[in-house]
Amino acid sequence: MPSSLYFSRVDRSLLSKCPTLARIVHAQLVKVGLIPNTYWGNRCLQLYFKSGAVIDAFRLFDDILDKNTITWNICLKGLLRNGYINHALDVFDEMPERDVVSFNTMISGLGSCGLMENAIRIHLEMQRCMIGPTEFTFSILASLVSCVRHGEQIHGNVICSGLSLSNLVVWNSLMDMYRRLGVIDYALSVFSIMEDRDVISWNSLISCCSDYGKKEVALDLFCLMREMGNQPDAYTVSTVLSVCSGLRDLCKGKKAIALCIKMGFLSNTIVSGAAIDMFSKCNRLEDSVKLFRELEKWDSVLCNSLVGSYSWHGFGEDALRLFILAMRQSVRPDKFTFSSVLSSMNVVMLDQGAQVHSLAIKLGFEQDTAVATSLMEMYFKTGLVDSAMGMFATTDEKDLFFWNTVIMGLARNNLAAESLAIFHQLLIDRALKPDRVTLMGVLVACCYAGFVNEGIQIFSSIGKTYGVNPCNEHYACIIELLCRAGMINEAIDIAKKMPFEPSSHIWEPIICASLDLGYTRLAETVADIMLGSEPESSFPYRVLIKLYEMTWRWENSVRIRYAMNKHNLKCAQGSSKIGIKSSVYIFEDDQLQIHGGYDTCATLELLSWDSDDQKLHWSEEHFY
């Protein structure tokens, strides 16, 4: 006959996966008479809930005669884990006695289901029942908070509870809470009063500064962390590498990688992926590729990093090749892989993009918002607006980035009215608030279509209505709109009233409009301003050369050309691409590039047959 020791040795991980085995164990416990024992009844009850057999668990719960608080807590946890929220609330109300575990279980379960208000209500009831919260209570509440006001209340409760400043669990939870809420000052204040700090404390503060634009401060904190004798972990150095990527600081990034090698963190795929991304963002793609090749084992994180690097540099063909090679190496693509590959597709890679789209559907990623956004972006870039709008109609969950992609895509395809209609649809929805990218897309639509009144109205309401501070791109767009409409004086007034120094994007449309209207003196004045503020731009040099040659001021033209050569500036060259089978060929201005040699020119000879049956005779020496 099995004993209680036998049941204690049963593989619970196996039993928790199968309700049938749980019933067998229950039957054996009944057979040997152990069910009346509260301990074994609780263990069997826990087993039923883990296996998802909620009905069997209810029956067993009724059979346990001597229920203690642990029995009720197991029932609460099991119901919440299996999604029976209302039943859990009923059980909680019926409990003859509640302890701190009961309240913590309810707060955690309700919060994980998104019922934050209910979780706070349970916490208030806990206070009315004079049950003191534990560190676990505060850490749960801190992880659930979604607004600063609630966070401040929890912070105040922690202080009033008298918890020690050396309690790392609670104070780290508060720091992470303020990091999520974006309140850097509060996170710093919590960090400053802590008596003890561990690597989690430092990671939270460094991440907080990194996430909200204080990247230099994040690097200073990392240095201070090491000076105070705290050893970083893999998460710390990956965050630092991401900071260096954002700052485009190759020197500090190399130092961080050297530390990774010294501490043995480079084998961690998160760290090595961050290192690949850092090299890429610092315009050292060759080092990203070299590091990737030196790593022994591939996984989705590493492949995503290099695919994203290729995409960021505009090498769509290389991103697609790596994508295919990774699948041949049995590396299953995820939503980030698809998003990066699709974002790298250019206008001559439509066939490959359609194949990637089919694969995304096959693997079940088409409904993912990030993948759907990248698919829309690809179709907009290739001019297939109907396909892009089909993605818009069939995607259920739309985030702000998704809406921004639609608005900007329609604008760049000269569908300004449709773009503005989508913008108004976003405003009606009210679930999301337009940001600076949204408003930029609307202004681009107005600019391309010449909607002057609509553009001026939206630009003037950016700050008051939408709470967005207009940046250089917004000013450049409204100025270009006014210049296209011939309202050059109004454009100059806006440029003069800008709260920051105008960039070349501001002055270029004004110069172009001045030349079109014959205002050569104004164009010369603005070009001189650009030379003083942005001497590395070739545009003002080219404008002045054209002006001086038009007015026969040859000495000034020679002087500007000399200055241009001195700064090693070249005129921008145009280029075009053509896709032939699986290859993409780039043709640049002033470059003779014959693909196919004599056969290509033989075809041109046939196409050049004139009406008198006279042929242009081509020979191979034309091409060598």
TrEMBL record:
It comes from the Eukaryota. Transmembrane segments: none annotated. Keywords: Repeat. GO terms for biological process: plant organ development; RNA modification. PPR repeats lie at residues 68-102, 167-197, 198-232, 299-333. Belongs to the PPR family. PCMP-H subfamily. This is Uncharacterized protein. It comes from Eutrema salsugineum. The lineage of its organism: Eukaryota, Viridiplantae, Streptophyta, Embryophyta, Tracheophyta.
